[in-house]
Amino acid sequence: MGTVTRGTTNPNRLRRMDRWIAAVHGAELRRAEDPVAVDLGYGAAPWTAVELLHRLRAVAPRTRVVGVEIDPERVAGAAPYAREGLVFRHGGFEVPVTRRPALIRAANVLRQYDESEVAAVWRRLCARLAPATEHSRGGLLVEGTCDEIGRRHVWVALGPEGPRTVTFATRLGSLERPSDLAERLPKALIHRNVPGEPVHAFLRDFDRAWAAAAPYASYGARQRWLRTVRDLAADWPVADGPARWRQGEVTVRWAALAPRG
Fold first, then answer.
1. What global pTM score does this model have?
2. Distance (Å, rounded) from C-alpha 166 to C-alpha 176?
3. Cα dihedral sign, 17-20-25-27
4. β-pair type (162-170, 152-159)
5. Any residues with CB less than 8 A from the CB of 33 and at least 6 apart, and which?
6. How much is the mean pLDDT over the chain?
7. Residue 216 three-state SS
8. What confidence tens digit (pLDDT) does each residue in 72-113 have?
9. How would you class 44 by CB atoms within 10 Å of its CB: exposed for 0-12, middle for 13-18, buried for 19 or more?
10. DSSP one-letter string for 143-186
11. Mode of pairing for the β-strands spanning 103-107 and 140-146
12. To pair with 88 at 20 to 30 A between CA atoms, which of 51, 150, 207, 237?
């Protein structure tokens, strides 16, 4: 279920997203009885699935990864890279795995769909996640977009109940202003970066805080970013702290950026 995408991929392209997943969702993966992570739409080569296995096993050694692609030729091409803990399957948004996954990562997949299709895809994928329990928030869907070499990312994190947060992540040395990340907004938000929409107001305030923090640039881009996010957090519901900010990230509650209407 779905449409064949361009399949553009590069080694190490999703490293920022992977590191974030390992940091914020690693405990859930460790608690799971049999943690399955799905790399949905890994593309023309299986690099991102191979890397996801390596990065998740560093924090949750029992994790298994299933690479899912709607193009049968890509699945056949990935077969030689299968190994213990990593398999490749033909499929799409139905997520063809027997166990409900603890993680679904869909990077640069919905970028090629219409905005009107996003909500239905999110609902379908969230319904496939491991459910919440008394001791768990359930599985996690991470859906977003990045540039070709992984310098700039924006992704939405969703649980079984729906959207939770939006994360902006960048290589700080390449950033002129935070609104440079607007071109990597996921499909649910990229067309909403217009006056009157919350994401536009957020990026406007982000740029203003960045400009106000210009004196900190003499200490490096990281210190300027840290000061910027501290100031931004006074008016926006920032959901993480300095440990993640130092990585060139900031995570904001979805409700604050959700499209109007």
1. 0.95
2. 21
3. positive
4. antiparallel
5. none
6. 95
7. helix
8. 999 999 999 999 999 999 999 999 999 999 999 999 999 889
9. middle
10. EEEE-TTSSEEEEEEEETTEEEEEEEEE-GGG-S-GGGGGGG--
11. parallel
12. 150
- The Cα–Cα gap between 181 and 145 comes to 10
What amino acid is encoded at 76 in this protein? A
Describe the chain by its helix, strand, coil percentages, rounded to 5: 40, 20, 35
Q: How confident is the model at residue 5 (pLDDT cuts 50, 70, 90)?
A: low
Task: Write b or e for each residue in 47-78: b if 16 or more Cβ atoms lie within 10 A of its Cβ, otherwise e.
Answer: bbbbbbbebbbebbeebbbbbbbbbeebbeeb
Token pair in block for residue 116? 């009107």
What are the structure tokens assigned to 194, written together? 């217009």
Give percent of the chain above pLDDT 90: 92
Q: Residue 40 burial by CB count (10 A; 0-12/13-18/19+): exposed, middle or buried?
A: buried
Q: CA 254, CA 167: separation in Å to the nearest integer?
A: 9
- Nearest to residue 59, comparing CAs of 86, 35, 81, 88? 35
Q: What is the pLDDT of residue 6?
A: 55
- Which residues face 142 on adjacent strands? 105, 157
Joined together, the tokens standing for residue 11 give: 């080694």
